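Repro case for the chain-ordering regression, as requested:
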Amino acid sequence: MPDVEISPESAVADQLAAVGALRRLADRLEDAAVEEAMRGDWSWPQVAEALGVTRQAVYKKHAKRLIAAGVSLRRRNG
Amino acid sequence: MSTFDQYLARVLETAAAEAKSDGSAAVEAHHILLAIAGEGSLALQSAGLDQAAVRRALDQEFSRSLAAAGVRLAGGMPDATPDPEKSPPVGASVRAALERSFQLVERKRDMRPGHVLLGVLQAELGTVPRALALAGIDRADLCERALTEVRA
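-- result from build under test --
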């Protein structure tokens, strides 16, 4: 097997770096989108359904942060 | 706490704040690099890398990495309120960097700030070498500068 140079800038390295970058973007996008939804008319179950996770999971992940941000988490329809 | 311990504690704290504000799930070696640049590093500065320049290089690396997957961020990262109480855990790249740093000295009390930088710079793969390359920085040369600073 020929020696292939493992470079931090090769096409494969770019793809691997893309994975990390996309995860960071996805995390931030989730935080931003959930915050915007909850500042609007969305309910926890609706956000959960849109994300494809349980209501408990989305609440556990975001509630504390949103309360600290002053978002009203009153009960909503749905 | 020794001067070095205080330095390392400050760097780790700053790195954690950077990780939190850029939405990272963990503190990574590139956050340590940002923190070192913020503390003022002669080696980095002599290569033209103040904190702003390091940040630009990292932003460039982030954009390039997204582009490899065909993603372009039109308006920058979306805004989100972080959890004020949560501090991101230390990631693998930081552990690896610090391990490398400590392996550079025989005794812990020989540790200097420059060793922390060297540990970060010695990563062959990942965000730090990519960002430095994109900024046109010769990583080997930068390591030399850090070594010179440590030996002084």
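Ordering looks correct now. The radius of gyration of chain A is 19 Å.
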